[in-house]
Design brief:
Phosphorylase Kinase, domain 1; 7 helices; globular; alpha+beta; 236 residues; 10 strands; 3-stranded antiparallel sheet; 5-stranded antiparallel sheet
Length: 236
């Protein structure tokens, strides 16, 4: 599929890619920069072979990834309209982390970099962006999307990244009428998530926060929050 041409109806946009409907049961995710989707497609196929819920991959070519179209909506959208389901959803999120971190990394999957790269037990698949906006609640159950950042490493790094994303992210994706509740809901989610998930993120909080600051998709206000977290963790 030729990059640069609109293949169909635009149905979603993120910080780095656009998603198009290209038929009743398929979508095209197209990255806006020179990112090769081959590794992402391979790790998704590997996870599917191990029984982890990911969209089916049909084709991968350059910046274009063709996948199964999922029904339902993402967990963040559901939390925004039905905050009373927070306990159920955070239990699902923690369970997805625990299930993912049982999957051995496939041969050739890049490892996490930085000062935490040599952490013990670093041979599991990490998502490195596994938060409510990347969990689709479908009729067949929860499905995890967006495997751009997948790496091999220590599961605690993945939990630390999820915690930091949830604690520091801007709230512009949340409907305005629910934003007054965001602080309370966020605090509840974080507390329950840390209590439910198996791996302890605290030893990796500072280096993961600094790695998140360096991400091209991290906004200035988010970076400032992350730096404050890193500095507090380093002093502890």
């Amino acid at each position: 599929m030729a990059a640069g041409k609109s293949p169909g109806e635009l149905i979603g946009s993120g910080r780095s890619a656009d998603v198009y409907a290209i038929g009743q049961n398929r979508v095209l995710r197209r990255y806006r920069f020179g990112f090769n989707v081959g590794a992402e497609a391979e790790v998704m196929r590997h996870l599917a072979d191990h029984g982890f819920p990911v969209p089916k991959v049909y084709d991968a070519d350059g910046t274009d990834l063709v996948m199964e179209r999922l029904d339902g909506r993402d967990m963040l959208a559901d939390l925004s309209s039905r905050p009373w389901l927070a306990r159920r959803h955070v239990a699902t999120l923690a369970n997805l982390h625990d299930r993912l971190h049982q999957v051995p990394a496939p041969a050739g999957l890049a490892t996490v970099g930085g000062s935490f790269a040599t952490a013990a037990g670093g041979d599991r698949v990490l998502h490195l962006d596994l938060h409510p906006a990347n969990v689709m609640l479908t009729s067949a159950g929860p499905v995890v999307i967006d495997w751009t950042n997948a790496r091999a490493g220590n599961p605690a790094i993945d939990v630390a990244m999820a915690y930091l994303i949830m604690v520091s992210s801007d709230t512009d994706l949340i409907p305005w009428h629910t934003r007054p509740l965001v602080k309370a809901i966020r605090a509840y989610l974080l507390r329950r998530f840390l209590a439910a998930v198996h791996d302890d993120p605290w030893p990796y909080l500072a280096p993961v926060a600094r790695a998140r600051v360096a991400d091209r998709n991290t906004r200035p206000a988010e970076a400032a929050r992350l730096l404050r977290i890193a500095e507090r963790a380093e002093r502890a």
